[in-house]
Amino acid sequence: MKRFNAIRHKFGNGLRLITVPTNKVNDVFIQICIGAGSCQEKMGSRGMAHLTEHLVIDDFLSGNLRNQNGFSSLRMSGGSTHLDYTLFTLKISPEIAYRTIKNILTKFFSIKRPSQEELSRMKETINQERKGKIHRKARGRIYEELYKVAYRRHPYRWYIFGKKRDYLRLTPQEVFQFYHSFYVPNNTVVVVYGPVLATKLINSLNKQINAIASSPLPKQDISPEPPQIRPKYRTIISNRTAARELLLIGYKIPPLGHIHLTGLRVLNYVLFQKRSGFRKILTKKKGQVKYAFGHLPLTKYEGLYEIFLSSPPGYSVEAAKDTFFDVIKRYTTGKISTKTLESAKRRALQELNQIKNKPKIFSEYLAIYEILLNDYSAFFYYQDSIKNLTKNSFLLSLRTIVQKNHMTAITIKPEQ
After folding, report:
1. d(C-alpha 308, C-alpha 137), whole Å
2. What is the pLDDT of residues 146-181, one digit of tens each?
3. Distance between CA 175 and CA 173 in Å, rounded?
4. In 41-65, which positions are buried (b, 16+ CB within 10 angstroms) versus exposed (e)?
5. SS3 call for 72
6. What is the per-residue pLDDT across 352-369, written as a single tens digit (0 to 9) for each?
7. Considering the entire predicted model, what is its pTM?
8. Half-sphere exposure of 73 (CA within 13 A, CB side)
């Protein structure tokens, strides 16, 4: 992957700015990443981070704000809450980029306390999201259940949508306090990608941004997750699956930056690339699986490698599960060819190279790596670690992590 000319600057109040100047795109993409997600919530306030995201988005997308001078070129805005961070995406035209970015950041750190009526409207929006993504869809329900079963103490055990009984009782003051505690310059990374000059941008922001005071972050007492010594299984009977059985497997994996993650990311391509041996086995056995894919979230603490399998209507997903375990066992015992491994490495590198042509995704990765590791360049080192991955280090990653005692499996079956 080409080493982009990314310039990192840290303001006096701790805000980190990463500028990626390029004339290959017509717009300026902005990622604002806050080092707070559902992991920063407490029992009794689950859903606070997601509600705060809506508070910020609601303010930015309000009709009055969009019409204000300096925001006229703001053409897109969106947000997403994750386990360890919250990410906001904006796209503006470059003609008045410097002034607009300054106004955006000034506004971002000065959101007003919501009224009870405004907060109620946000809660109703989240209720509708929960209904659409979890209550009415088995896929959302199975992900929420996976994290609840996989974790006993760590706050990852409550999923990012939170608990309805918690967030419905939250007051405007409580939500504003969460915003005021975590949405501070020293807990923020901003990535600007597009036709801008880093020096000019820094100079235009310097006085106004440094005038925004930093603030000590709340101390967190995160209970360490005890080692998982046996696999966990749970089966749910539901009427949401449209006659299909779903299986979600989660393996406990180390956090972002750990050496073993490279082997696991390559494993994901070994298993799920288009012509993988695992897919060939599944397609030969009619009815085993309709969808199959894996995902490794970027997390600050011990996370989960998520493997999703879905059977066609009328078939059991158990056969696909058995096939998956057989394939994993074969790989961990060293029965994987050099050709298969090199093919997966090439596919992983191709995927990374494709990211450079997707400004939004590329700038997201830089922001996330910076907020979680304090090192955006680690994203580039990931390419080198794939290139240098040997069969022995690949097998070590598998044998260390992909074991049944590290695993949680959730199955959703349709009502008979």
Report:
1. 14
2. 999 999 999 999 988 889 999 999 999 999 999 999
3. 6
4. beeebbbbbbbbbbbbbbbbeeeeb
5. coil
6. 888 888 999 999 999 999
7. 0.93
8. 20
